[in-house]
Amino acid sequence: MQNLLGSILFTLVVASFMLVIYRVCHDTLTYNKKFNITLMMLSVISTVLLALIQNNPLLSLGVLGSLSICRIRTNTKDPRDLGFVFWALAIGIASAVGAFTAGIASSLIMGVVLVVFHKLDKGCEHQMMVVRGEKKQLELVQNVLHQAGVTVQSKNVFTDTFELVYELQLEKNEEEKLVSRISNIEGIRGVNVLAPKTKVA
């Protein structure tokens, strides 16, 4: 019983570190507080389950049979969320088998790597730019956007107007310069920069 309580305490400590990394690596649109709490639950549950079945082969078969009917149907907003699920399970397993050093070392390495990649990618977030204006300015706007190296996602041309949707991956200051340049073109009715693309469940 004492071993189990010690394992659960260890799980809570390491899982808390994982939750902090999860929050740091997600922006306000992709962060899901409920999912973050679920990661903590997965870590503790996996610790308890493995502690119960590791010395009982028959019980382990029964638990595996029960888990085999489970299905995860929740769509994640960020592909990295699946990695966090396995990280949570790994913490629980390491704690249950007493591999505390491996659990701490692997979590620290994983956390550092994720934060570093997040910082490197933070300066160039993917965003969407929507430009609307008079049809006579279509070619000029397309040339400006082509020179900026952005990627066209959608192009709608009407009788007198147009609507262009482009994907941006620029530094903050370069993005502001581009928006200002296009906005100053005569005949442009609107330039909108949308939030980073996310997968909506």
How do you describe this structure in short?
With 201 residues, the protein is α+β, with helices and mostly antiparallel strands. 59% of the residues lie in helices and 15% in strands. It has a 4-stranded antiparallel beta sheet, covered by helices on one side.
Element-by-element helix/strand order: HHHHHEHEEHE
Tally of DSSP β-strands: 4
Structural class: alpha+beta
Integer count of domains? 2
**Sequence stretches where pLDDT stays below 50 over 5 or more residues:** 197-201
Largest sheet: 4 strands, antiparallel
Helix content: 55-70%
Q: How big a fraction of the residues is strand?
A: 5-15%
Q: Compute the separation of the termini in Å.
A: 41 Å
List the strand order in the largest sheet: 2-3-1-4
Shape: elongated
Number of helices: 7
Radius of gyration: 24 Å
Mean pLDDT: 82
Pfam family, one: DUF4956
Keywords: Membrane, Transmembrane, Transmembrane helix
Protein name: DUF4956 domain-containing protein
Which terms summarize this structure?
single chain, 201 residues, alpha+beta, Alpha-Beta Plaits, four-stranded antiparallel sheet, 7 helices, 4 strands, 59% helix, elongated
